[in-house]
Amino acid sequence: MLARHVKQGGARVLQLGGSTRDIFYYPADTIQVTVGGPDVSPGLWEQAGMQAKVPVQAVKAEPQKVLSSQAGSTADSIVLLNQLQEWADMQQLLSQVYRVLKPGATLVFVQRLRGGPLQPLLGGSAGAVDPTLIDQIQDYAGWDFVQVDAALQSSDLHAVGVAVKPLTATGNASADGSVDAAAFEALMRRGKGKRQQQQQQAGGFQQKP
């Protein structure tokens, strides 16, 4: 996911949540990954960055503070790993993400969902969100394109998605933007050039008309 939807050729990335192993999945020529969260250990993250040969700046702070402190149009990708439950106002989160992303840049997210078949056996629903929050990401007016799928990770249901900010005010993001060309074209073929909207149903997300 990170290797496919984070810009090749030098990206500046903001990652909220996740673990140090995520650093090893970024493109080798990533310029910098800024990682934020209340439990971030700067030393561990920077060591992982040296091992992965990806420069890392670690910020120990609440994700809301980390995101709001970023300058506008500075990130080639924003990566949210199980972060939606941290925001009381999804529209505020999405507007901040949109502000920080460069034109043509991507929001990449993985989010644990309520309702997985083995969730009661895997520690309950802590950190999981209602699938309607995923709908809010899909329905956000600013995206040029958005694709979301359901995936099982350790028998636990997750939403995995990517959204693209337009290159221009009139839309028309392209493979020349921040996403990997092959990955972008695959998404566009799948959606037949239209924005994809899916909803959770019977263990997966179904395309909306």
Tags for this entry?
single chain; globular; Rossmann fold; alpha/beta; 9 strands; 209 residues
Task: Describe what this molecule looks like in 3D.
With 209 residues, the protein is α/β, with parallel strands linked by helices. The chain has a single domain (2-207), classed as Vaccinia Virus protein VP39 (Rossmann fold), CATH 3.40.50.150. It contains six helices and nine strands. It has helices spanning 2-5, 42-52, 63-68, 90-100, 132-139, 181-191; strands at 12-17, 32-37, 56-60, 75-81, 101-112, 145-153, 156-164, 198-201, 204-207. The strands form two sheets. Strands 3-2-1-4-5-7-6 form a seven-stranded mixed sheet. Residues 190-209 have low confidence and may be disordered. Residues 189-209 are annotated as: Disordered. Keywords: Methyltransferase, Transferase.
Would you kindly provide a brief summary of this structure?
The chain has about 210 residues and is of the alpha/beta class. About 25% of the residues lie in helices and about 30% in strands.
Structure summary, number of beta strands: 9
Helix and strand run: HEEHEHEHEHEEHEE
Spans of at least 5 consecutive residues whose pLDDT stays below 50 are: 190-209
Largest beta-sheet details: 7 strands, mixed
Helix content: 10-25%
Structural class: alpha/beta
Would you identify the CATH H-level superfamily? Vaccinia Virus protein VP39
What is the number of independent domains? 1
Strand order of the largest sheet: 3-2-1-4-5-7-6
Oligomer: single chain
Q: Which fold name corresponds to the CATH topology?
A: Rossmann fold
Number of helices: 6
CATH class assignment: Alpha Beta
